[in-house]
Amino acid sequence: TESLESRDAELFDAIRGELGRQRDEIELIASENIVSAAVMEAQGSVMTNKYAEGYPGRRYYGGCQWVDVAEELAIERATKLFGCGFANVQPNSGSQANQAVSLALLKPGDTILGMSLDAGGHLTHGAAPNQSGKWFNAVQYGVRRDTLDVDYDEIARLAEEHKPAMIIAGGSAIPRQLDFARFREIADSVGAWLLADVAHFAGLIAAGVYPSPFPHVHVATTTTHKTLRGPRGGMILTDDAALAKKFNSAIFPGIQGGPLMHVIAAKAVAFGEALRPEFKTYQKQVIANAKALGESLVEGGLDLVTGGTDSHVLLVDLRPKGVKGNATEKALGRAHITCNKNGIPFDTEKPMVTSGIRLGSPAGTTRGFGEPEFRQVGRWITEVVDGLATNGEEGNGAVEEKVKGEVAELCGRFPLYPQL
Ligand code: PLP
């Protein structure tokens, strides 16, 4: 009966602080979103108490009748959303979903072909410090120098040369649409498995505003917390019954123990929300907002990698202003605009410095921002960046203060979690 506030004041304060930060600042991190109160309610539910190793109807523990309902709902809704036959909703994260696919389909030492981190890929696609880079012979593809978009000719060439056991499509900073059919053609030409990691695009795909990996891929993995707007977690999708069995075994008992049933319950709620017509309207607005933000930044004199976006994410090339990603992330933070520094393709700066920032529209769009608000955000970013260009790393304090005030006013017009 004791409240969190009276039982643990320090932790309570940290949560209130985080709520305040989310309320008062503009969230532009492309991999983040703002879940509904219903999703949080499910995640904060008694399902956290339950052990449920195994799968619905085949558990290693008694008392699973209600968590089975939650997991079955999550699976049924996920397969409906993505138009595929099977879903494993137990991965604790996107990384663990990818790890399980590797465990199911590969042996240590096998060759994999994924997008390099520098070009926009994810750590789990074969980066050196990640398990995928240590336990497999990871060959990495990048983007074309002319378009800065995914280089399919290079993928075909590297596939032919290295004969990978698995090719991974997808990444964390790819503004344009992926051609899954082209990926499959290349995979088939060398007999490789094709995995699409659609973590970033999942919500757009579910809403039909971005190409679907099905029927082209053998398997797709995703996180559930980015554009899909669910709780933090992962998921594996496939149309192939035999593969589905392998992925189930790879998740449990392969790499995980008891599933996070409260998170799976929250996934079910989020997938239910994503099946509603409003979700399509939301995702259309996500793309329209990203485009509006991009146009506003270009008007302000910044460059965009690939010249724009067809998705929720923008990669901003700061070089026209002569400023760095790390200084820009900090300066925008001072103005209460949150984003992350990000290398741009062929970046000559170190990963902790970078020549770019990555921006995304999912969280702001959930909050209710439309194109006028995103254009305004673009103007504020330009002002803050111009302060850095003129004054060096400390930026223009007066401009940052002014923007911070205007950000507060905008955030006040779009209240977040008023019930909390
Ligand atoms: N795959 C891609 C493409 C991602 O962008 C991410 C997250 O950043 C992941 C996988 C990993 O997800 P998680 O952070 O849940 O492990």
UniProtKB/TrEMBL annotation:
<feature type="domain" description="Serine hydroxymethyltransferase-like">
    <location>
        <begin position="4"/>
        <end position="381"/>
    </location>
</feature>
<feature type="site" description="Plays an important role in substrate specificity">
    <location>
        <position position="225"/>
    </location>
</feature>
<dbReference type="GO" id="GO:0005829">
    <property type="term" value="C:cytosol"/>
</dbReference>
<comment type="function">
    <text>Catalyzes the reversible interconversion of serine and glycine with tetrahydrofolate (THF) serving as the one-carbon carrier. This reaction serves as the major source of one-carbon groups required for the biosynthesis of purines, thymidylate, methionine, and other important biomolecules. Also exhibits THF-independent aldolase activity toward beta-hydroxyamino acids, producing glycine and aldehydes, via a retro-aldol mechanism.</text>
</comment>
<protein>
    <recommendedName>
        <fullName>Serine hydroxymethyltransferase</fullName>
        <ecNumber>2.1.2.1</ecNumber>
    </recommendedName>
</protein>
<dbReference type="GO" id="GO:0008168">
    <property type="term" value="F:methyltransferase activity"/>
</dbReference>
<dbReference type="InterPro" id="IPR015421">
    <property type="entry name" value="PyrdxlP-dep_Trfase_major"/>
</dbReference>
<dbReference type="InterPro" id="IPR001085">
    <property type="entry name" value="Ser_HO-MeTrfase"/>
</dbReference>
<keyword id="KW-0663">Pyridoxal phosphate</keyword>
<dbReference type="GO" id="GO:0050413">
    <property type="term" value="F:D-alanine 2-hydroxymethyltransferase activity"/>
</dbReference>
<dbReference type="InterPro" id="IPR049943">
    <property type="entry name" value="Ser_HO-MeTrfase-like"/>
</dbReference>
<feature type="modified residue" description="N6-(pyridoxal phosphate)lysine">
    <location>
        <position position="226"/>
    </location>
</feature>
<keyword id="KW-0963">Cytoplasm</keyword>
<dbReference type="InterPro" id="IPR015422">
    <property type="entry name" value="PyrdxlP-dep_Trfase_small"/>
</dbReference>
<dbReference type="GO" id="GO:0004372">
    <property type="term" value="F:glycine hydroxymethyltransferase activity"/>
</dbReference>
<feature type="binding site">
    <location>
        <begin position="121"/>
        <end position="123"/>
    </location>
    <ligand>
        <name>(6S)-5,6,7,8-tetrahydrofolate</name>
    </ligand>
</feature>
<comment type="similarity">
    <text>Belongs to the SHMT family.</text>
</comment>
<dbReference type="GO" id="GO:0032259">
    <property type="term" value="P:methylation"/>
</dbReference>
<dbReference type="GO" id="GO:0035999">
    <property type="term" value="P:tetrahydrofolate interconversion"/>
</dbReference>
<comment type="function">
    <text>Catalyzes the reversible interconversion of alpha-methyl-L-serine to D-alanine with tetrahydrofolate (THF) serving as the one-carbon carrier. Cannot use alpha-methyl-D-serine, L-serine, D-serine or L-alanine.</text>
</comment>
<comment type="subunit">
    <text>Homodimer.</text>
</comment>
<feature type="binding site">
    <location>
        <position position="117"/>
    </location>
    <ligand>
        <name>(6S)-5,6,7,8-tetrahydrofolate</name>
    </ligand>
</feature>
<comment type="pathway">
    <text>One-carbon metabolism; tetrahydrofolate interconversion.</text>
</comment>
<keyword id="KW-0489">Methyltransferase</keyword>
<dbReference type="InterPro" id="IPR019798">
    <property type="entry name" value="Ser_HO-MeTrfase_PLP_BS"/>
</dbReference>
<comment type="pathway">
    <text>Amino-acid biosynthesis; glycine biosynthesis; glycine from L-serine: step 1/1.</text>
</comment>
<dbReference type="InterPro" id="IPR015424">
    <property type="entry name" value="PyrdxlP-dep_Trfase"/>
</dbReference>
<keyword id="KW-0028">Amino-acid biosynthesis</keyword>
<dbReference type="InterPro" id="IPR039429">
    <property type="entry name" value="SHMT-like_dom"/>
</dbReference>
<keyword id="KW-0808">Transferase</keyword>
<dbReference type="GO" id="GO:0019264">
    <property type="term" value="P:glycine biosynthetic process from serine"/>
</dbReference>
<dbReference type="Pfam" id="PF00464">
    <property type="entry name" value="SHMT"/>
</dbReference>
<dbReference type="GO" id="GO:0030170">
    <property type="term" value="F:pyridoxal phosphate binding"/>
</dbReference>
<keyword id="KW-0554">One-carbon metabolism</keyword>
